[in-house]
Amino acid sequence: MAALFTGKVLMANREEDEMETERELDRVLENKVLLLYFGSGQCPRCRQFSPLLKDFFVRLTDPFYVERASQLGLVYVSRDETEEQQSAFLRSMPRRWLAVPFGDAFRRELELRFAVSEVPAVVVLKPNGEVIVGNAVEEIRRMGPACFRNWQEAAELVDRNFRLAEDFDDWSRRSITDPIRRLKYKLDKKKEKKERKEEGEESS
Fold this sequence. Notes:
The chain has helices spanning 22-29, 44-61, 83-91, 106-113, 137-143, 147-154, 178-203; strands at residues 10-12, 17-19, 33-39, 72-78, 98-99, 121-125, 131-133. By secondary structure, it is α/β, with parallel strands linked by helices. One of its GO terms (cellular component) is mitochondrion.
């Protein structure tokens, strides 16, 4: 995926850091499904869609919701009118989002390459840069995080260890003590087995 951005600069951490070397880009984009989000903080349709995309991304990557973050990256390609507007928009979005710097001509290159004529648009790419979905906005609206599994399979990134903490249809926030409770449950089960074994030995 880094090949798409060879010689380009992406902004990370809400524009605090620049990533421009191939090694840096490989580290954050390698072996991931990549979303290119073409949008604007001022566009009414984008203002409706952006919170859905934020929730979609968080539910697939935040440890609060998943046992293990999915193989998913996102690059924001801005149509904001000013750098301040772009910065304000990104501050309200997840820290893991990357962005094409404001005013970079590469933005127009991406629009032409992926035939983006209106926003919001979400282009879904395989790690090798091939297009999985030309515009996934409606799919994300309709299916939510469930559509990631389809993309994961299309990208041949089937990761047997990826597992949602809760079923997509019945999201409930996981307790902070959940890992402790699960560990205690395992210990209790071991203790129970040991006690049964000892009882069996005594009665024989």
